[in-house]
Structure formats: C-alpha cells, structure tokens
Write a structure and sequence with these properties.
- The protein is of the alpha+beta class and 138 residues long.
- The protein has one domain: Nuclear Transport Factor 2, Chain: A, CATH 3.10.450.50.
- 30% of the residues lie in helices and 41% in strands.
- It is built from four helices and five strands, in the order ααβαββββα.
- It has helices at residues 3-19, 26-29, 43-56, 122-128; strands at 30-37, 57-70, 73-84, 97-109, 112-120.
- The chain has a five-stranded mixed beta sheet.
C-alpha cells in the first residue's frame, strides 16, 4: 500500500473506532497477530480496554493533529478530549472535562495494523483528574 493509502486507512480507523465509539470494528483494522508494544496482546484485550475507556470517558472528541506516513508506517499526533464519567485507574468519576495528547506509530501490512507503539500524556491526564498534584508555578 502507498503512504497515502496507509494514511487514509489510519484516518478511517480513528473516525470509525475512536470518534465513532465502535470497538466492535477493531477486527476490521487490526491483524489478529498484531504486536502492541506495552499494550494489549490480542484483539479481545484491545476491545476490552477500548470499551472500558469509552465507558469511563463520555463524549469523546478525537483530533488528529498530524498524520505522517512513510513506507509501511503511519505516525499520528493526536488530542483526545472527553468527560470523566467513570472510575479510571482508581480515580472515581469527577465529571471533569479532560484533554490529553499522544502519539501513535502504526505499522501496516495487507491493509491491517500489524504493530503499534503508543505514548500518551498520562501525567497530564492524572493531574486533570486531581490524582496527582500540579506543580505550583511562581
């Protein structure tokens, strides 16, 4: 697949699965033998994690800030905003609007995601939820 085709595939993934809040579509995008560095090890775990996230954070608004593709890799710098409506990592629902950013690198083969690396601003998210104090500025 060309870099432009890969970018379009990843855009469709975010639109349908994340923005559309449809974890049932994961199998259409992820190869069953994918490698997710530091994350779920199979489609069932991936779906459970995404479903839990979507049940915890309501009204998800996902913005792709940058999408860069070369060869079989697509890099996405994104921002996610949502309402914290359920327990998250031991933090009870706060009802707060939160926003955090991340970068995902996908490797694609045969029109499927076969490998992924994801880094998110977990510290910033936990500070917004009040679980970690925000440093005072002078």
């Amino acid at each position: 697949m060309s870099a432009e085709t890969n970018k379009a595939f990843v855009k469709r993934y975010f639109e349908q699965v994340w923005i559309g809040c449809q974890p049932d579509l994961l199998a259409e995008f992820w190869d069953e033998n994918f490698v997710y560095h530091g994350g779920p090890v199979n489609l069932e775990e991936l779906k459970t994690g995404l479903t839990t996230f979507l049940n915890t954070f309501a009204e998800v608004r996902f913005t792709n800030e940058d999408i860069i593709a070369e060869g079989d890799k697509v890099v996405v710098r994104w921002t996610l905003a949502a309402n914290h409506q359920g327990e998250f990592m031991g933090v009870p629902a706060t009802g707060k609007q939160v926003s955090f950013s991340g970068i995902t690198i996908f490797r694609l083969a045969n029109t499927q995601i076969v490998e992924a690396w994801v880094r998110t601003d977990d510290l910033g998210l936990m500070q917004q939820l009040g679980a970690i104090p925000t440093p005072e500025t002078s």
